[in-house]
Amino acid sequence: MVLYPFGAGAMAINLFFLSLILSWVGWSVLPLGAAIVGGCVLGVPATWLFARHLRKLMDSTEDNSG
Question: Would the pTM of this model clear 0.85, i.e. be above it?
Answer without folding.
Answer: no
